[in-house]
Specification:
single chain, 534 residues, alpha+beta, Immunoglobulin-like, Purple Acid Phosphatase, chain A, domain 2, 3 domains, 11-stranded mixed beta sheet, 7-stranded mixed beta sheet, 7 helices, binds fe (ii) ion
Length: 534
């Protein structure tokens, strides 16, 4: 009797599973960008072919009520996965779209939504960037690589849940999604990856467009077949109509000897550094393998240092995102040294962030203790991604730890450039929880403008040694004062009221050029360049 029940149960389970496949509903959804993210997006899924029904009004799952529809443009094939892609175009910038997918049997997905990016560089943007979400290496079913919880995928999922709660404008993923090696079942790994990605969908059905670079665990065409990103091995996307030009380079290609990537990069940099309207406000670069890794045993990639870094410097790149070694670092602005063997501090240099800890097994740091690189602002080993907020004036970089995710409140802000919700755990090293980069052109213009019309506030002495006195021409109420070093490090902040205040120039303020920002309640920002003698 027990056996009869068991076999009946087993037969029913198999039948249900088989019928589920026969019905082949849509599942494993993912949005990606391959073209202008203000007017187009790719809706990707696995399972049955179908049609995306969409519009700017929320019609729930009443597919017939949506004014627009678009079928499958292409099917990507990789590792046994057949991804369906509907390339939506002609969208209105900075607009929330609602959609439902109706498969060819008439089955409906849930109602999803997404916001197109802006075409206006005056609009702010906030995004998540990180990489390395693969599982640890296993031998005979036992993890060989170190995952703190014993299961590397737990942390990956926590990171995905954080995306759903933060509601970034997009996610920029920097390679090494799954193991994808001879020792692993790549079909199952990608199945799990796409299933886990469903955790990035917010409780209101909102999804986030993704951008991608290839790591060393992916095949050459995997990105195109699984996400429908541009087929080229390297590409660039304009964000917010020229606010950011974001380069996606392929570190699997030799930076010097692969002429097609190098020439393309030089041509694009030249075209977009001409002093004309094609110039973006910010240039950011993303690639997988660090040029000079802080992760133990990886060291210098000489071809990238020789053929990329000087170009980045020459053409005004401000931020570079790296991945691959499963540790975390962020640097002060830095440049290549004269021999191309290392980086050195330079206030006009580039900030490098990385190196890929979206759940992947933890590794050790190189260059610790007395050997710590002076241009590395801080480093550590913990699961995280970076949250980047950008507007015309500044770029703010923070690292979000995959901790206490259950305590994070899902953001209720669906507008572009929204801030972090309550409860996120920031990386908070002693020297600050954020890096702020200022738009140098704006800063110079602002200084010139203020110099020309004379400042309202008097900051003295200049040069200063141990303290600054600031006198206001009118009585201020809770004005914010921030002092930044020339490397963009916030070294002092306070709120003041009244006609006069004195600031201590504490030890964390560097000697040399510093910037004092006075921000009043009415939105006025006045900056003063001061020299600190130490
Ligand atoms: Fe890697």
């Amino acid at each position: 009797m027990k056996n009869s029940f068991f076999f009946s149960f087993l037969f029913t389970a198999i039948l249900c599973s088989f019928q589920g496949n026969l019905k082949a509903e849509t599942f494993q959804y993912c949005l990606s960008f391959r073209d202008d993210p203000s007017t187009s997006i790719v809706v990707g899924w696995s399972g049955a072919e179908g049609t995306v029904h969409y519009g700017t009004n929320d019609e729930g799952t009443d597919y017939a009520a949506y004014p627009l529809s678009h079928g499958v443009d292409r099917i990507g094939n990789a590792h046994g996965h057949n991804r369906k892609f509907a390339r939506l175009s002609g969208l209105t910038p900075n607009t929330m779209y609602y959609f439902v997918i109706r498969d060819n049997d008439g089955d409906l997905s849930q109602r999803f939504k997404f916001r197109t990016l802006s075409d206006n560089p005056n609009d702010p943007v906030s995004y998540v960037t990180g990489g390395d979400s693969r599982d640890g290496f296993k031998a005979f079913g036992i993890y060989v690589e170190n995952c703190p919880s014993g299961n590397c995928l737990d942390k990956r999922r926590e990171g995905n849940e954080l995306v759903a709660k933060i509601k970034p404008d997009f996610v920029s993923f920097n390679g090494d999604y799954v193991m994808n090696q001879i020792t692993s079942n790549t079909f199952n790994e990608w199945t799990q990856w796409f299933q886990d990605w469903q955790l990035t969908i917010s409780s209101d059905g909102r999804m986030y467009g993704t951008m991608h670079t290839q790591g060393n665990h992916e095949d050459n065409s995997d990105m195109y077949q699984l996400f429908d990103v541009p087929q080229e091995e390297f590409y660039v996307l304009d964000i917010h109509g020229g606010l950011i030009r974001k380069y996606f380079l392929n570190s699997e290609l030799n930076a010097c000897s692969n002429a097609s990537q190098l020439n393309w990069l030089i041509n694009d940099f030249e075209t977009h550094t001409s002093g004309g309207s094609a110039d973006p406000i910010w240039k950011f670069v993303q690639y997988h393998i660090p040029t000079l890794a802080m992760g133990n045993g990886y060291g210098l990639v000489a071809d990238q240092m020789s053929c990329w870094v000087n170009l980045f410097q020459q053409f005004g790149v401000r931020l570079v995102s790296e991945s691959h070694t499963h540790i975390t670092k962020w640097t002060y602005p830095c440049k290549a040294n004269s021999g191309g063997t290392d980086f050195v501090l330079d206030e006009d240099g580039i900030v490098y962030i990385g190196e890929g800890q979206w759940g992947a097994p933890h590794r050790n740091l190189d260059f610790t203790g007395n050997n710590k690189k002076p241009y590395v602002r801080d480093q550590g080993v913990f699961d995280n991604f970076f949250f980047i907020q950008v507007n015309q004036d500044s770029t703010v970089i923070r690292s979000i730890k995959f901790e206490n995710v259950g305590n994070v409140t899902e953001s209720t802000d669906n507008e572009l450039g929204s801030d972090l919700p309550n409860g996120v755990t920031l990386w908070e090293p002693d020297n600050g929880d954020r890096i702020v980069l200022y738009n140098k052109t704006d800063e110079e213009d602002e200084l010139n403008t203020i110099d020309a019309k004379q400042n309202k506030y008097n900051v003295h002495p200049n040069p200063a040694t141990d303290k600054l006195t600031i006198e206001f021409n009118t009585e201020l109420n809770n004005a914010k004062i921030e002092v930044y070093s020339s490397l963009g490090k916030l070294c002092y902040e306070t709120e003041v009221s009244g006609l006069k205040t004195e600031l201590p120039l504490n030890e964390s303020c560097h000697g040399g050029v510093n910037y004092v920002y006075i921000k009043t309640k009415d939105g006025r920002v006045e900056s003063h360049k001061i020299v600190v003698l130490k």
